[in-house]
Each structure stands twice: as structure tokens, then as C-alpha cells.
Specification:
With 357 residues, this protein is an alpha+beta fold. The protein folds into 2 domains: 2-166, Alpha-catenin/vinculin-like (Four Helix Bundle (Hemerythrin (Met), subunit A), Up-down Bundle), CATH 1.20.120; 211-356, Reverse transcriptase/Diguanylate cyclase domain (Alpha-Beta Plaits). The chain is built from 11 helices and 5 strands. The protein has helices spanning 2-14, 16-70, 76-90, 99-128, 132-162, 165-201, 211-228, 242-249, 251-266, 292-308, 332-348, and strands at residues 232-239, 274-277, 282-288, 319-325, 354-356. Strand 2 (274-277) and strand 3 (282-288) form a beta hairpin. The radius of gyration is 45 Å and the shape is rod-shaped. It starts with a helix and ends with a strand. It catalyses: 2 GTP = 3',3'-c-di-GMP + 2 diphosphate.
Length: 357
């Protein structure tokens, strides 16, 4: 909950566009790093596979040499082939190895190469003298070579297997990315829905409730009044000569007046009172639990506050107000009509006035 609240505050402070760009950039970085790790792992495993394959060729080549010697057949080309493989494999520039693989592999392949030289010497001795003793020496060196090559291949297999952790790590990153994207989509969706809900209920210029909310509140308050007979006052007001402000000073100045007016009214009514913008410069306030004397005091206070407020223009801004109470058998239309007639009376009497019917 704290993280969700933090995300909402972040959206509000820096804007959803900046947050989205940051999130996309973060995902691109993570995916790029993950791709690098996967490529690195694939290269390393490919190199390890080449080493295992090459070691297998050496072992099979040595077996063939020993077999051909005992069969008294020519095997010089086979020895040459094994020597070439050893020479190539001992040249570490032919492989892209990490330090751990290089250290383990080169130590063991060097030992295997030394054993191969000993085996070749034993084969040469046996070739000159086919005695049982020399044959046993060849078999002994051959078994030593087999044992060393087997250990080498097992070591390479173990190293290659251990490197699969990179794929596991990459999978975890992809899983994290997936759930993070879902979470971000959830947060953004919630934020946007809330924004849309606010926009559907609030006048975008003044932040007062709009006409849709006015109609909703009127229905609810009228229903509650008819049931509980609680006191509800309806105040309607508009700005005197507002058209002249737009015509002489421009719509930007008019918009500023509207925003300042709403802010001024909002701080001079209770939190339970509801302020609506129902037209261009026309507003409604719904007020509960006031008698006529309190309503007169409130409306006159609002009128004076506006008259005394400095809107930054070269002339004073005033408002005319009309007010009424909900009555039995009232409808939304009858309430509005009665308050509007009171407003008309205030304007007819010279404006900057309050009339209560």
C-alpha cells in the first residue's frame, strides 16, 4: 500500500509522461543487460562444448593409435593428427575462455599432453621390442591417459553445467520484468481511471464540481429532504458584467477571474457545503442546516468578500446572488426556478445584491 501511494504521489508531482519514459528506459536497460548475460552464457557454453568435443577427439585418436600398434599397422598419420589437436588446444588464443575454465582446463590438458608424450615413448619402445613388459607399459600409459581424459571431460561438463545458472538468473529477471510490467500497468490504469473520474466530475478550469455532479447531488439532496425534512439552502450566483471582462480584457483574464472567484468562495464556505459551476459564470452552492438568518449572513459575507477581493484588474468584481430553501413538493426545476428568479431580482435592483425567496 505504501508503494502504491508513493507511485501515485510520484505521478502527481512529475507527471505520468515522465514516469512512463523512466519506466520504459528502465525496462530497456534491464532487457539489454539480460540479453548480454544470455549471449555471454551461450558463448561460454559453446566454447565449453568445443573443448569437450576436442578432448573426445584426442581420446578416441589415442585409443586408435594404441589399437593400431597392437595390430601392427601404420599409425603415423593418427599420431600426427593427435599432436595437431594438442597443439591447437594448448594455444588458448583459439578459445574465448573465462579465467576459471582456462585455469582448470589448461592445467589438466597440459598434464594430459605430458602423458601423451610418455605414451608415445612407450609405443616407440614397444614398436622396437614387442615384449610383454613393454606391452604392459603401453597399456599402463594408455589407462593413465584414459583416466586423465575422463577427469578432464567430467571437469568440463561440470563447468558447463554450472554456467546454466546464468539462464536461471535470466529467467528470474524476465519473470521480474513480467510482474513489474503488470504492476505498472495496474498502477497506471488505476491512476488514469481516477483522473478520468475526476475529469468527469470536476470543471477543468475552476476545479469546482461540474453540472453532472450538480444534477446528481440535487437528486440525492432532494430525496433526503423529502424524507427527513432537513434544512437545505440553494444559492445561485454569477459575476456581474462578466461579458465585459472577456470583451475588454480577453478570455484569459476572464478565466483567471473565474478561478480566483472559486478559490475565494471555497475558503469562505464549510467543507460540507458543495460548490458547482453550472454555466459560464454561473455557480450554485448547496448548504445544509442553516436557518434564514444564517443564510442571509452567509450570502452577504460571500458578496462582500468578492467585492473586497483584488482580482488584479483595474476595476472591482462583484457578484449577484439569489437563494431559496428546499420546500415540500419541490422538484429540481422548481428549486432552480425560484432561486433564479431571486437572482434576477438582485440584478434588476442594481447587481451586487442578495435576494432570498
Amino acid at each position: 500500500m505504501f508503494f502504491i501511494s508513493f507511485c501515485k504521489r510520484t505521478f502527481q508531482k512529475v507527471g505520468i509522461g515522465f514516469v512512463l519514459i523512466s519506466i520504459v528506459s528502465f525496462h530497456i536497460i534491464i532487457i539489454s543487460l539480460n540479453t548480454f548475460f544470455i549471449k555471454y552464457a551461450m558463448n561460454q557454453i559453446e566454447n565449453d562444448a568445443r573443448l569437450i568435443n576436442t578432448t573426445g577427439k584426442i581420446r578416441s585418436g589415442v585409443q586408435r593409435v594404441v589399437k593400431l600398434e597392437f595390430a601392427q599397422k601404420d599409425y603415423k598419420s593418427d599420431i600426427k593428427r593427435v599432436d595437431e589437436i594438442f597443439q591447437k588446444i594448448l594455444d588458448k588464443s583459439n578459445y574465448n575462455l573465462d579465467s576459471l575454465t582456462m585455469q582448470n582446463y589448461l592445467e589438466m590438458i597440459t598434464l594430459l599432453s605430458s602423458n601423451w608424450e610418455e605414451l608415445k615413448e612407450a609405443l616407440k619402445i614397444y614398436s622396437d621390442d614387442h615384449s610383454n613388459k613393454n606391452q604392459e607399459l603401453v597399456l599402463l600409459k594408455s589407462e593413465e591417459f584414459w583416466f586423465l581424459s575422463e577427469n578432464l571431460m567430467n571437469t568440463l561438463s561440470t563447468i558447463a553445467t554450472q554456467k546454466t545458472y546464468i539462464f536461471k538468473f535470466s529467467f528470474i529477471i524476465f519473470a521480474f520484468e513480467f510482474f513489474l510490467i503488470l504492476f505498472v500497468i495496474f498502477i497506471i490504469n488505476k491512476f488514469i481511471r481516477k483522473k478520468l473520474e475526476i475529469l468527469s466530475r470536476v470543471d477543468p478550469l475552476t476545479n469546482a464540481y461540474n453540472r453532472n455532479v450538480y444534477n446528481e447531488y440535487m437528486e440525492n439532496e432532494l430525496e433526503a429532504f423529502l424524507r427527513y425534512k432537513n434544512s437545505v439552502a440553494f444559492i445561485i450566483f454569477d459575476i456581474d458584467f462578466f461579458k465585459n471582462i472577456n470583451d475588454t480584457l480577453g478570455h484569459k483574464a476572464g478565466d483567471t477571474v473565474l478561478k480566483d472567484l472559486v478559490n475565494l468562495i471555497a475558503v469562505n464556505i464549510r467543507k460540507t457545503d458543495k460548490l458547482f459551476r453550472i454555466g459560464g459564470e454561473e455557480f450554485v452552492i448547496l448548504v445544509k442546516n442553516l436557518d434564514k438568518s444564517n443564510l442571509e449572513n452567509l450570502t452577504d459575507k460571500l458578496r462582500k468578500k468578492v467585492q473586497e477581493y483584488d482580482f488584479g484588474l483595474d476595476k472591482n468584481i462583484t457578484i449577484s446572488l439569489g437563494a431559496t430553501f428546499f420546500k415540500d413538493n419541490d422538484t429540481k426545476e422548481s428549486i432552480f426556478k425560484r432561486a433564479d428568479e431571486a437572482l434576477y431580482c438582485s440584478k434588476k435592483d442594481g447587481r451586487n445584491k442578495v435576494t432570498i425567496y
